[in-house]
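We both want to read discrete structure tokens more fluently, so let's practise on a single case. Would you supply a protein for us yourself, any chain you care to pick? Would you write everything just below, so we can both look at the same thing?
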Amino acid sequence: MGLVNAVVPADRLMEHTLEVARGIAQKAPLAVAGAKASLDRGFEADLPRGLAIEQDSVVLLFATQDKKEGLDAFVERRAPNFAGK
């Protein structure tokens, strides 16, 4: 299922956890919030309902300024500056 993507020694667990958290924090905040909300809402849903929840999130996120910034940054080969809008 891809739920485990790293195994680290216990004495490095906090360091690794913070590295992952910093990486997530650099992503578009609305996209991260949307992913978390979709997971929360879809956790106990069947596949069709889970896909509908994900689709609803994508539709909402597609209309954001952060989506435009992400695409612009990609095309311009620069780091995005997400504003959470």
